[in-house]
């Protein structure tokens, strides 16, 4: 099968890694998500992954804590997830490198753009941890930034909803799903499925997003094969 995209940035929801337990990492679920990633590699696709941290910690939900410190905790949570995903991919025989935006050399490589591109060219999957490396941002913005730097063709946002709706479908059962929309519409309607910094950045850089549900991990393969899945934002 020929992939529609040569180089993809897969943004994995942290929450998705928790499976039915709702918190932390369920390793069977991690493996379910890693298998389609191997299929992408078998199809000849170059794959970089940014993992969220919502299964452990989100700085914006930290309440009374100092926000910067809370965001540092969130970024560390994304590293736990990145290591878990890397382990799952390696168990499937893939060559994998973890790169973090905050240096922790004993654990992972530091993020070096040219090195990341080289890994991709050599067929290695890269898992990026720590998002942008800065507080007050999110892993959506981290995904947008890395996608621009490595010149990914698209960002695949594999998340807990099956696309972009005109309001949050978890709060409004009447919400209607879009098949396609523009970043301008996401921004004007303040649609919370991705953060506004990421939407604005990708609008300027011309990097499309495909937002789809990770509940069925095979959607990752469908997305790269060009099948109709989720919502395309461009
Ligand atoms: N208009 C909308 N359309 C679709 N989903 C929306 C909308 N507004 C808000 N959401 C919410 O956005 C969520 C997805 O983004 P969210 O940032 O919460 O998770 P994530 O980026 O996938 O990763 P993590 O779980 O690591 O935080 C959905 O679960 C959904 O409830
Ligand atoms: O660039 C970044 C990326 C993330 N954070 C912190 O990590 C958590 C988890 O990321 P999610 O995107 O919410 O899954 C986030 O809530 C922030 O607290 C960050 O500070 N900077």
TrEMBL record:
Q: Which UniProt keywords apply?
A: Allosteric enzyme, ATP-binding, Cytoplasm, Kinase, Nucleotide-binding, Pyrimidine biosynthesis, Transferase
Which EC number applies?
2.7.4.22
- Name the segments for region: Involved in allosteric activation by GTP: 19-24
Pfam family name, one: AA_kinase
Q: Where in the cell is the protein located?
A: Cytoplasm
SUPFAM superfamilies to which the protein is assigned, alphabetical: Carbamate kinase-like
InterPro entries in UniProt: AceGlu_kinase-like_sf (IPR036393), Asp/Glu/Uridylate_kinase (IPR001048), Uridylate_kinase (IPR011817), Uridylate_kinase_bac (IPR015963)
**Per UniProt, where does UMP bind?**
53, 71, 132-139
Could you state one GO cellular component term attached to this entry?
A: cytoplasm
Which GO molecular function annotations are given, in alphabetical order?
A: ATP binding; UMP kinase activity
What the protein does comes down to: Catalyzes the reversible phosphorylation of UMP to UDP.
Instruction: Write the protein's name.
Output: Uridylate kinase
Gene source species: Acutalibacter muris
């Amino acid at each position: 099968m020929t992939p529609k995209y040569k180089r993809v940035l897969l943004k994995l929801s942290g929450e998705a890694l928790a499976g039915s337990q709702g918190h932390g990492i369920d390793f069977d679920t991690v493996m379910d998500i890693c298998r389609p990633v191997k299929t992408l590699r078998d199809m000849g696709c170059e794959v970089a992954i940014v993992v969220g941290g919502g299964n452990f910690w989100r700085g914006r939900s930290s309440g009374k804590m100092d926000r910067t410190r809370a965001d540092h905790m969130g970024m560390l949570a994304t590293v736990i997830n990145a290591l878990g995903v890397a382990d799952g991919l390696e168990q499937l025989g893939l060559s994998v490198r973890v790169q973090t935006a905050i240096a922790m050399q004993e654990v992972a490589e530091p993020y070096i753009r040219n090195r990341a591109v080289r890994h991709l060219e050599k067929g290695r999957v890269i898992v990026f941890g720590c998002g942008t490396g800065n507080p007050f941002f999110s892993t959506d913005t981290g995904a947008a930034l890395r996608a621009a730097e490595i010149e990914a063709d698209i960002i695949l946002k594999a998340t807990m909803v099956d696309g972009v709706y005109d309001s949050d479908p978890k709060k409004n059962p009447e919400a209607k799903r879009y098949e396609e929309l523009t970043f301008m519409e996401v921004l004007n309607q303040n649609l919370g499925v991705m953060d506004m910094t990421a939407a604005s950045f990708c609008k300027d850089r011309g990097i499309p997003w495909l937002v789809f549900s990770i509940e069925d991990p095979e959607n990752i393969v469908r997305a790269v094969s060009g099948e109709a899945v989720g919502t395309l934002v461009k």
